[in-house]
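User: Could you go from structure to sequence for me? I need the amino acid at each position, not a summary. Structure tokens:
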């Protein structure tokens, strides 16, 4: 499709600049722009030993070749976790067929209450691409320390209920397990979709 009326109106200099910019845009990786926070190389690559919501031991190797959205939370969370999980579920759905390359890993920072069946029901309620992960406190601590994720337990009420304060960032890893992006529910879905499509298109 051409727009002759547009072309007529553009000053000659603009057309020349546009023509010059084309070869640069075709230069691949260096021309990529990101709408989420680019933290490539700022944090270590994905590494963990945990248990999935089927009770199977898993490591980062199990997700090699996939784009991983790593999030830390707990199923009793009243606000940030459901909001962020719903956002990620919507984003993954918008990816259509490309969603097969994306996994949402929900790591529980409340393993005492988040049993395997609860974790599985919770993550599946949001997205078929979501997996609940849990582990021993030592395993969870090792992973949260690795990505400087903070969490702390509130005082239990009379019924034994308590809140867990936790960092709300989502760490996004490329197919090779390298850290690439940091996101949160303050980023619009369009930014997530744009950047994830770019990561999916990257060669393994
Ligand atoms: Ni939460």
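Assistant: Here is the amino acid at each position, in order:
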């Amino acid at each position: 499709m051409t727009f002759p009326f547009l072309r007529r109106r553009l000053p000659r200099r603009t057309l020349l600049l546009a023509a010059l910019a084309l070869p640069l845009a075709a230069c691949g990786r260096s021309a990529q722009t990101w709408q989420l926070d680019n933290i490539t190389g700022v944090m270590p690559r994905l590494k963990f030993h945990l248990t999935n919501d089927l009770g199977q031991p898993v490591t980062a190797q199990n997700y090699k070749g996939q784009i991983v959205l790593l999030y830390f939370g707990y199923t009793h969370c009243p606000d940030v976790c459901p909001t962020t999980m719903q956002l990620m579920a919507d984003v993954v759905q918008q990816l259509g067929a490309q969603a097969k390359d994306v996994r949402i890993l929900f790591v529980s920072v409340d393993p005492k209450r988040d049993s395997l069946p609860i974790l599985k029901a919770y993550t599946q309620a949001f997205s078929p691409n979501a997996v609940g992960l849990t582990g021993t406190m030592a395993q969870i601590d090792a992973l949260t320390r690795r990505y400087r994720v903070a969490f702390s337990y509130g005082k239990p009420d009379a019924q034994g209920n308590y809140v867990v304060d936790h960092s709300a960032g989502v760490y996004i890893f490329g197919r090779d397990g390298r850290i690439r992006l940091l996101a949160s529910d303050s980023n619009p879905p369009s930014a997530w979709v744009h950047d994830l499509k770019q990561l999916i298109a990257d060669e393994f």
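One structural detail worth keeping in mind: The first helix runs from residue 4 to 9.
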